[in-house]
Amino acid sequence: MADFPHLSRRGFLNRTAAVGGLLVVPGLLSACSKTNAGAADGEGALDKLRKQGFVRVAYANEAPYGYMEGKELKGEAPTLHREIFKALGVDELKPTLSEWDGLIPGLQAGKYDVVSAGMAITPERCANALFSEPEFISPTALMVRKGNPKKLTDLASAKAAGVTVGVMSGAVEGSYAKGAGIAEGKIKTLQKPQDGADAVKGGRIDAFLLTGISLRWLARTNPDTEVTEAFVPELDGTKQFSPGGAVFRQGNEDLRDSFNRELKKIVSDRSRYVELLQAYGFGATEIPPATLKTADLCKG
Questions:
Q1: Which of 30-34, 136-140, 250-254, 268-272 has the lowest mean pLDDT?
Q2: In angstroms, how far is the first alpha carbon of the chain from the final one?
Q3: Model pTM?
Q4: Which residue numbers delimit the Solute-binding protein family 3/N-terminal domain (predicted)?
Q5: How does pLDDT run across 96-139, given as a tens digit for each residue?
Q6: Could you write out the DSSP letters of every residue in the chain?
Q7: Closest C-alpha among 140, 135, 289 to residue 213
């Protein structure tokens, strides 16, 4: 089972407002955008992929979003993208491993055609690449001891019960807890997901706050815990959907648009979406609302 690399996970969780922060090197992005190798293949990009029979995808080896298990590329993004590209007449995904902060620069440099890593959609990233419509949202949940002895359901119930809540160091969940009115002395900082699970099992905290996606994956190897139903927290009155999607090179609008048409068929079919992705901790609560649009997310 793949681990949770600190860099990429912190980059996804340390987000602002409804969409998130940026974990890239601006200077590198600017340099790559000037050369933008491979951008000339924008028109007819899908036809070229069909002729060659494969699409080059980049992943960051981060479970459950996109990772290699043995010789097989697995995770939310590769599973969804494999289904979509097959429908578009491209039968094979050819994977390339990349560091998280090298994903967009590598895309711009023409090293691959799509980022298949569950990347959060942010205005900063939209300035350097094309995003699909949201593939998923990342509602929050609580990991608790088996049986949920405090009967917790969300942050309001955690506040009412006066429990101690754990959050990841530097992650936005700490601001969610404070925003819900949980006293600072009742919020404990942890360094990595397994630390949170261990603290729950050891009784040092009553609940561990993280995305439902990550917690359900974590619970697979921590059987003495359970995960509450996911919920969408609010911060300063704004719902925190934290959506992610596929990423394409600028100039490949035709490929992005074709991808979106097939993606819509899947996210509009609740049972199909869940069947495809439930093995990776994604369920109906991760289906993006039809009103959540990338064009709006890119505006901030």
A1: 30-34
A2: 35
A3: 0.80
A4: 54-284
A5: 999 998 999 999 999 999 999 999 999 999 999 999 999 999 99
A6: -----HHHHHHHHS--TTT----S-HHHHHHHHHH-TTGGG-TTHHHHHHHHTEEEEEE--BTTTBEEETTEEESHHHHHHHHHHHHTT--EEEEEE--GGGHHHHHHTTS-SEEEEEEE--HHHHTTSEE-S-SB---EEEEEETT-TT---SHHHHHHHT--EEEETT-THHHHHHHTT--GGGEEEESSHHHHHHHHHTTS-SEEEEEHHHHHHHHTT-TTEEEPPPB--EETTEE----EEEEE-TT-HHHHHHHHHHHHHHHT-HHHHHHHHGGGT--GGGSPPTT--HHHHHH-
A7: 140
Examine residue 243 and say whether the peptide bond preceding it is cis (omega within 30 degrees of 0): no
pLDDT at position 218 over 70: yes
